[in-house]
């Protein structure tokens, strides 16, 4: 029998069969050993080949519960998940985005153990229509864990947030969770560009919906909300870990696409006194990480579609995702989980659909890339 | 039976002052609306079993003996025939001045008034010789700033139309509210300079327009546009314009 070249798919299935066979009769310890070994071998080679079968890293599931897990900062570690940027049209018009958000809901419901809560990262509707928002709310009602809602620009600018607030309450709020202070911001306010142009609400929404539409203003948190943030943090000691959920990145990545917060510097200054700050943001539809001073930034994936990396301004620390395969409707999309650790820092897992998940640890960001570097992608954006 | 040869090879002759010079053999179809019908010349039939060649004035003819219909002349023979025809024409119209843009190599231009300072380095004639100096009153390739302005305005308008289609699900014919700019803001990640390339998912070598059509059919859920469709051409124009200056790299995956 002549040695034949094996296709990528054949190799994948052979790998898979081999691993599953080994798993068939093993206890939990052996299972974790195999899982860690496979991950280790792959990471050591510096590869993250999309076609090789690997077990999803299960180590993150081992979260200590109870007093034994309380860290030095007084916080207990916990997990949360996120679903973001679904951009729903009415089901009758567009099935594709509906399928994606339902897939994310299934992912989150399948997590074991269940996360403490699920963050919805904004842009639930595509054009802010009540029917779209209602549909999104109905789909998210199937999530078993409690859902914390955050607003995006696509939800807001049709009626300036009227329907959103009616359905989900105020867009800015904070809460404490197991020793971590969590702040949810409305970071996509825009200075009025529509009145002078006599735009209808629909035209205003369409303008905001266009990423490369230079007519709209840049996003901002705004002075009023910055004041609120100052007041809110006034009672929080500087040793308490802070997690900020925001739709816009809270730093300046690429102005033309509104991957940008105009008053980012002011917001970062308010967060500066705190030892451990993590910002988790939406809007960018890509794997994105940054570290500015004391703040670690993680961008969330979108369920609807991926965006290419901007031509300039991409933070050097970002571990890029391979550019998306347009022939696969789920590629480059996904959801994710995060672990708020005992030491107050946050690790995240990017659950990329149709690809292996990628873990980005806080140590990687805080060390400015010196330790814990995740594998790099094969196919650069161009 | 068309025994008529087109003699308007740009290297040998300048634009004829008379309107018949528009008789290009490149066969534009449909894009240029002519104000009136093009002139049509009747070529007399051959008397000696050869091929009748007619000058673009529609009158001067000569018969090439020994040439069968459909058979090609050698270059030297063709030059000889055209020289004879030009000489005949010059003889009939001694008062008319014939502008030569370039002289042919190895022979005097047929009967032309030696007003020009044209020189010609290589024998091929037609293809660019850098030693040709421009001359006063040269009607051939003599365009002015206003022409360039008009052409640029036309091109930019077409690219703008492509921009509009790119950003509109409705104009694309999409049925699910998805437009190109949703995944490709400013036409990013379209990388038109990498086509043609083998696209395994399409099982063929793809050009940019094939990918555009695929995207229209799939993520946008519209009907594919034919190659002639002004919308497809405008989309291509817009995408290419956004990548101005990027080096071509066909086959890059």
Structure description:
Residues 45-52 and 55-73 of chain A have low confidence and may be disordered. In chain A, a hairpin with a 2-residue loop joins strand 4 and strand 5 (180-184). Chain A has helices at residues 8-24, 28-44, 95-110, 130-140, 153-156, 162-168, 201-209, 223-234, 264-271, 362-366, and strands at residues 78-83, 117-120, 147-149, 173-177, 180-184, 242-246, 252-254, 259-260, 277-281, 288-292, 295-299, 334-340, 346-352, 358-360. Chain A has 2 domains: 1-55; 64-366, Purple Acid Phosphatase, chain A, domain 2. Chain A is globular and about 70 Å long. Chain A has a 6-stranded mixed beta sheet. Chain A is an alpha/beta fold and 382 residues long. With 253 residues, chain B is mainly alpha-helical. Chain B has 2 domains: 1-137, no CATH class; 145-242, Orthogonal Bundle (Cytochrome Bc1 Complex, Chain D, domain 2), CATH 1.10.760. Chain B is built from 6 helices and 4 strands. Chain B has helices at residues 75-92, 145-166, 169-172, 180-183, 208-217, 230-242; strands spanning 51-54, 61-64, 197-199, 204-206. In chain B, helix 2 (145-166) crosses helix 6 and helix 5 packs across helix 6. Chain B starts with 50 loop residues before the first strand and ends in an 11-residue tail after the last helix. Chain A binds chain B through residues 89, 93-96, 126, 210-212, 256-257, 305-308, 310-311, 323, 326-327, 329, 379, 381-382, and chain B through 167, 175-178, 181-186, 188-189, 191, 194, 201, 211, 214-215, 218-219, 252-253.
Question: In a nutshell, what does this entry contain?
Answer:
The complex is a heterodimer of chains A (about 375) and B (about 250). By secondary structure, chain A is of the alpha/beta class.
Task: Look at the structure and give the mean pLDDT of chain B.
Answer: 79
Helix and strand pattern of chain B: EEHHHHEEHH
Helix percent of chain B reads: 25-40%
Mean of the pLDDT scores of chain A? 88
Q: What global shape of chain A is seen?
A: globular
């Amino acid at each position: 029998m002549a040695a034949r070249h094996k296709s990528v798919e054949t190799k994948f299935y052979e790998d898979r069969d081999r691993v599953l066979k080994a798993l068939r009769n093993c206890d939990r310890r052996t299972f974790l050993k195999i899982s860690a070994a496979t991950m280790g071998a792959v990471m050591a080679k510096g590869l993250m080949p999309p076609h090789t079968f690997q077990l999803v890293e299960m180590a993150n599931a081992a979260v200590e519960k109870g007093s034994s897990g309380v860290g030095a900062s007084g916080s207990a570690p916990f997990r949360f998940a996120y679903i973001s940027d679904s951009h729903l049209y009415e089901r009758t018009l567009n099935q594709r985005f509906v399928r994606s958000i339902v897939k994310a809901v299934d992912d989150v419901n399948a997590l074991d153990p269940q996360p403490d809560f699920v963050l919805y990262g904004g842009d639930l509707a595509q054009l802010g229509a009540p029917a779209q928002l209602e549909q999104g709310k109905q789909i998210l009602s199937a999530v078993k864990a409690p859902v914390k809602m955050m607003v995006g620009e696509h939800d807001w600018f049709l009626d300036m947030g009227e329907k959103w607030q009616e359905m989900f309450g105020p867009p800015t709020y904070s809460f404490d969770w197991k020793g971590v202070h969590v702040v949810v911001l409305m970071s996509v306010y825009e200075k009025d560009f529509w009145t002078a142009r006599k735009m209808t609400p629909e035209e205003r929404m369409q303008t905001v919906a266009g990423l490369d539409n230079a007519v709209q203003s840049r996003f901002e948190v705004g002075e009023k909300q910055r004041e609120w943030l100052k007041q809110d943090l006034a009672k929080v000691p500087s040793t308490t870990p802070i997690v900020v959920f925001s739709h816009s990145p809270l730093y300046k990545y690429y102005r033309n696409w509104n991957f940008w917060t105009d008053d980012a510097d002011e917001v970062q200054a308010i967060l500066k006194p705190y030892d451990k700050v993590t910002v988790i943001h939406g809007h960018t539809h890509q794997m994105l990480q940054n570290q500015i001073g004391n703040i670690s930034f993680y961008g969330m994936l979108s369920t609807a579609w991926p965006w290419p990396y901007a031509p300039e301004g991409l933070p050097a620390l970002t571990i890029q995702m391979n550019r998306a395969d347009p022939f696969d409707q789920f590629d480059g999309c996904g959801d994710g989980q995060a672990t708020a650790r005992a030491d107050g820092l946050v690790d995240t897992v990017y659950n990329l659909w149709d690809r292996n998940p990628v873990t980005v640890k806080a140590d990687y960001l805080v060390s400015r890339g010196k330790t814990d570097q995740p594998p790099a992608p094969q196919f650069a954006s161009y | 039976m068309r025994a008529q040869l087109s003699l308007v090879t740009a290297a040998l002759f300048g634009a004829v002052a008379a309107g018949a010079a528009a008789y290009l053999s490149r066969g534009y179809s449909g894009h240029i609306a002519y104000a009136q019908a093009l002139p049509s010349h009747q070529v007399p039939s051959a008397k000696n079993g050869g091929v009748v060649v007619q000058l673009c004035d529609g009158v001067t003819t000569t018969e090439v003996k020994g040439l069968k219909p459909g058979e090609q002349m050698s270059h030297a023979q063709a030059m000889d025939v055209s020289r004879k025809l030009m000489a005949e024409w010059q003889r009939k119209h001694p008062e008319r001045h014939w502008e030569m843009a370039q002289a042919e190599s190895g022979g005097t231009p047929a009967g032309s008034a030696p007003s020009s300072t044209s020189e010609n380095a290589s024998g091929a004639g037609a293809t660019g010789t850098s030693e040709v100096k421009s001359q006063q009153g040269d009607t051939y390739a003599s365009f002015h700033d206003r022409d360039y302005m008009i052409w640029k305005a036309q091109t930019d308008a077409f690219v703008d139309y492509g921009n509009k289609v790119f950003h509109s699900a409705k104009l694309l014919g999409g049925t699910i509210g998805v437009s190109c700019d949703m995944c490709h803001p400013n036409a990013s990640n379209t990388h038109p300079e990498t086509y043609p390339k083998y696209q395994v998912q399409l099982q063929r070598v793809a050009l940019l327009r094939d990918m555009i059509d695929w995207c229209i059919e799939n993520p946008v859920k519209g009907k594919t546009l034919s190659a002639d469709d002004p919308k497809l051409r405008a989309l291509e124009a817009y995408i290419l314009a956004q990548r101005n200056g990027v080096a071509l790299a066909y086959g890059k995956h």
